[in-house]
Amino acid sequence: MVNLGLTRVDDALAAKHPGLGSYAACQSRAFMKGTGTFILGAASLFAVQMVIQKKLPYPLQWNLLISIVASSVGSYTVTRWETQKCSDLWLLLETGKIPDRSPPPVPKPEESKGTGKTKYGDVME
């Protein structure tokens, strides 16, 4: 029996997708890394700002706001990155192929061959 969060997955579904347990563990690890990033980021930014606040005084509410917003952005980035790795793992376990994340090749623009005419009849050089 595989657990996904608080719910249990049926044995037939777990047998159909043998990588489900690995994927669930990877997702759980990704979310915990994001949570840890938020907590450690907020605490460290708050501490750094308390040191800076001795030189440049500003209200505590701004200190908290900056710490929380910056650590939220960092936490989102880490969670998104780790979740993408889990998605790649799931595709590898299900299809046996590593997904290609490289951007598609950009076609090179063709150079014009001499002069041309616009739709208005003007000659371009």
Please outline what is shown here:
The protein has 125 residues and is mostly helical. The chain contains three helices and four strands. The strands form two sheets. The protein has a two-stranded antiparallel sheet. A two-stranded antiparallel ribbon has the order 3-4.
Tell me what the structure shows.
The protein is flat. A hairpin with a 5-residue loop joins β3 (116-117) and β4. Helix content is 62%, strand content 8%. With 125 residues, the chain is mostly helical. The protein has a two-stranded antiparallel sheet with strand order 1-2. A two-stranded antiparallel ribbon has the order 3-4. It has helices at residues 11-16, 20-55, 60-95; strands at residues 2-4, 7-9, 116-117, 123-124.
| Poorly predicted residue ranges | none
Biggest sheet, spatial arrangement of strands: 1-2
Cα-atom radius of gyration: 26 Å
Distance N to C terminus: 72 Å
Globular, elongated, flat, extended or rod-shaped: what is the shape?
flat
Look at the helices and sheets and give the structural class.
mainly alpha
Largest sheet: 2 strands, antiparallel
Number of strands: 4
Q: What is the number of helical segments per DSSP (H or I, 4+ residues)?
A: 3
Q: State the order of secondary-structure elements, H for helix, E for strand.
A: EEHHHEE
Please state roughly what percent of the residues sit in beta strands, choosing from under 5%, 5-15%, 15-25%, 25-35%, 35-45% or over 45%: 5-15%
Helix content: 55-70%
- The whole-number mean of residue pLDDT values reads 84
